[in-house]
Design brief:
The chain is α+β, with helices and mostly antiparallel strands. It is built from three helices and seven strands; from the N terminus they run ββαβαβαβββ.
């Protein structure tokens, strides 16, 4: 089943992408929730027109994302957490903690746009991926240290 996404869905695609999904997933979940619409000819034409109208805004958003990525650069942030003697942390290091530290440094990033390559479970360095734009992903290093 071919559908057109109405919003960004992590792991599936971005707004206005035409993708193929299983019929049950599209019919029973994505379309009723308003996250997608059926990819018929009229919806494809309507989406193409919307894309043309939004192209200028998209270029500006990409420039802003590139500027933010350049400002962030090869940043390394530290998150203090409680840990056991073996180095295993209690609880979890989340995207919210990363976003709070970035906000304290003057960078505004949405928490939904932050993910980890490998979920932090021990003390050490981890890579966080910032999904700043559809075509731009930036990585920063997160050091998990004991408090």
């Amino acid at each position: 089943m071919e559908i057109i996404l109405k919003q960004d869905i992590q792991g599936l695609g971005y707004k206005n992408d035409t993708i193929k999904v299983k019929a049950g997933y599209g019919r029973n979940f994505l379309i009723p929730n308003g996250s997608a619409m059926l990819a018929n000819e009229s919806n494809k034409r309507m989406t193409a027109e919307n894309i043309r109208q939004v192209a200028h805004k998209a270029a500006k958003l990409k420039q802003d994302a590139e500027a933010l990525a350049a400002k962030i650069g090869d940043m390394t942030i530290e998150i203090g957490t409680k840990a056991g003697e073996s180095g295993k942390i209690f609880g979890a290091v989340t995207a919210i903690q990363v976003v709070e530290i970035l906000k304290a440094k003057g960078f505004d990033v949405d928490r939904k746009k932050v993910s980890f390559k490998e979920q932090p479970k021990q003390l050490g360095a981890y890579i966080a991926i910032l999904d700043l734009h559809k075509e731009l992903k930036h990585t920063i290093t997160v050091n998990v240290v004991a408090e």
